[in-house]
Amino acid sequence: MDRRMNVLALCATVFLGVTCSKDSTGIKTPPVGIGPNGGVDTLAAGLIILNVPAGAVTQYTSFTATSASGPANPLLVTGSVWQISPQVSFPPAAEPTVTVQLTGLTMPSGVLQPEVRVGKVVSSSWAYLTSANTGSAVSTTLGATGTFGLLGVPVAAVRASQGVLTMSVGDTLRLTAVAQDADSNNLPNRPISWSATNGSIATVSGSGLVTAVAVGSASIITSSAAIADTIPVSVSTASTTPWLVEDFSTYTSLANMMLDPRGIYDHSDINNLQQVSLINSGVNGLTQSMRYTWPIRTDSANRCTDYYITRSINTPDYTASMSLVPEMWAEIWVRFSSSFTTKAPAAWSCTSDPDYKFIFIRVVGGGRFDLKNDYAGEGTHWDANYPGGGDGDNNFIYNVWHDDQWHRIRMHARVSTTATSADGIWDIWLDDSLVTTRHTLNTVFNGTLSTGIYGVKMGANLNQGPAAVQTLDWGLIKLWKTNPGW
After folding, report:
1. What mean pLDDT is predicted for residues 248-266?
2. Does 16 map to a domain?
3. Domain that holds residue 315
4. Do residues 42 and 27 share a domain?
5. Chain centroid offset of residue 328 CA
6. C-alpha to C-alpha distance for 431 and 332, rounded to whole angstroms
7. Nearest residue to 99 via CA among 56, 150, 60
8. 51 inside domain
9. Does the reported pTM lie above 0.90?
10. Nearby residues of 52 by Cβ (< 8 Å), 6 or more positions away
11. Contact criterion met (CB below 8 Å) for 408 and 332
12. Distance CA 423, CA 420 (A)
């Protein structure tokens, strides 16, 4: 009698408004499943969690998830198709949430777990549902039950590292590209292919190495999953022979590089050479480059002051006879680590300007032509100065390449003819984009005319930090004293 009364009380209080069934003894038992008050159910051996809010169903419902098949799709996660039954349409204000665990599932080729979304079969094809992915699980809301599966997000765009190429016959240039989804999120493991529209003008390898073959125009096409980006290429006659080339390929060891067997370096302008190394990675098919590595300065009393890593190249005329040139063109390939920053942690309370004095065109008479990385520390700025120009005189926003990729800088510098003339020049191209051009400069510095150019300084002072190891690689330096035809 007591057991009958307990069950009757349970039916009356927990399942109010729902008729309890009777067993063979006549005792009423609670209904099975999720009722009008909502609840949580675990399906597919714990792989799926169904969270049903109050008001989603009007009567007790037992949901099941059974393996099913769906339309073929290369982005479909293996074994991830389920039929959720019975067929129920839910009110818009009370749609259940379904969460699927990703651990242990086999991802399609090139798809990472954070890229997975929930899809539903609609009219014999997959429709993507708005999903939230934590990296280990993906969830969505259901308007109705049916056949569901997990798919990698499709490629919506492909972005090449450069938009337009201006090359000379014989030049090579390494391009990179990444696939992106519709929200511009990178899909780093998706396969990328390369092709050229006119191989008689320019060719491209399977890894994105472009070679300028003959004068004319062509396009390089990079694609992923039938989505493409097109990079126009303009090829002109071969540039004049560089005055000096440093590609680090001739050195047999770090010690050999430091001995400077070619006699091109200024041994009076060096800093922290213990932070310089020769690495087995180069640009555009070269096999070596020079690396600067900044040490962690978290525990240093000088962490908010300048830290220098420096090597400088002299022009051939200056090395041979101390002669200067009034004008020079330079092409420099560099690669910053993705960890590179010019700004120390806020907790350090540094008051110095958070920038890195990156490249100097060295002049006699005072001042310099320079390019500084990350003026003011925003992470998106360059600053180009010239002899006689004020600090920050030519501050411009451009992508500061902290991305582990090789990039090309081209520079054209000319000092003023006289102390009163305004015919100095300072032009800079970043990855073939002309980002600053100054053709009416007076290069008098503190009352003294800069009389000529004698070299390139590769790196000067980082004003503060860093709090983590960061690197800068120098891959290829070319100098001209006659116009190379850019």
Report:
1. 96
2. yes
3. 244-480
4. no
5. 32
6. 10
7. 150
8. yes
9. no
10. 34, 38, 39, 40, 41, 63, 96
11. yes
12. 9
Cα dihedral 345, 351, 355, 359, rounded to 10, equals: -130
pLDDT tens track for 34-57: 999 999 999 999 999 999 999 999
| pLDDT(124) > 50 | yes
Query: What gap in Å lies between CA 319 and CA 266, rounded to an integer?
Result: 9
Mean pLDDT of 423-442: 90
* Any domain includes 485: no
Is the pLDDT confidence value at 3 over 90? no
Cα 194 off chain centre by? 19
Asked if residue 444 and residue 365 are part of one domain, the reply reads: yes
CA distance 183 to 180: 8
Q: What length is written for the chain?
A: 486
The model's pLDDT over 433-457, given as tens digits with 9 standing for 90+, comes to: 888 899 999 999 988 888 899 999 9
Beta strands 165-168 and 227-236: pairing type? parallel
Does one domain contain both 391 and 420? yes
Cα–Cα dist 116/48, whole Å: 15
pLDDT at residue 20 tops 70: no
Q: In terms of domains, do 309 and 435 share one?
A: yes
Per-residue CA distances from 248 to 242, 277, 478 (Å): 16, 11, 12
Instruction: Say whether both 14 and 126 belong to one domain.
Output: no
Q: How far is it, in rounded angstroms, from Cα 437 to Cα 349?
A: 36
Interval 217-241: pLDDT, tens = 999 999 999 999 999 999 988 768 8
Handedness of CA 429, 433, 435, 438 (dihedral sign): positive
Residue 188's alpha-carbon distances to 177, 227, 298, 339, in angstroms, are: 9, 15, 32, 18
